[in-house]
Amino acid sequence: MKIGELSRETGVAVRLLRYYEAQGLLTSHRSEGGHRHYDPDAPATVARIRTLLAAGLPTKVIRELMPCFAGDGAGLQACVLDHLRAQYAELDSRIADLTRARTALGDILDVSTRVLATPEP
């Protein structure tokens, strides 16, 4: 399958597929003319990449996880679950930090709105 075909089948831009390849997430074979050709399982690989990206995982982590898929779906082997749990905990921490920042910003906006609404003597 050529890169254009993979792009059409997966809905992922050619440029992004090249990026995945540069990051070591996707592999291709070159023809004599230098054209990329992908194995028949490439659409499933792209789907896995997209799933992990949507989960907020960086490409470095995804590259480490790619060999650990169990079966044809998005499930991963037990040996990487602790790593995923750590990523999950990191997201929880970031969400808590963002929630605190949002609350603080809301407080500043409330005070500022009240100050601006109060006529000066």
TrEMBL record:
CDD domains documented for this protein: HTH_MerR-like_sg3
Entry keyword Repressor: yes
Q: Which UniProt keywords apply?
A: DNA-binding, Repressor, Transcription, Transcription regulation
Keyword ATP-binding set for record: no
Q: Name one Pfam family in it.
A: MerR_1
Q: Where is the HTH merR-type domain?
A: 1-68
**Gene Ontology MF terms in the entry:** DNA binding; DNA-binding transcription factor activity
What PANTHER family would the database entry show? MERR-FAMILY TRANSCRIPTIONAL REGULATOR (PTHR30204:SF69), REDOX-CYCLING DRUG-SENSING TRANSCRIPTIONAL ACTIVATOR SOXR (PTHR30204)
Q: What is this protein called?
A: DNA-binding transcriptional regulator, MerR family
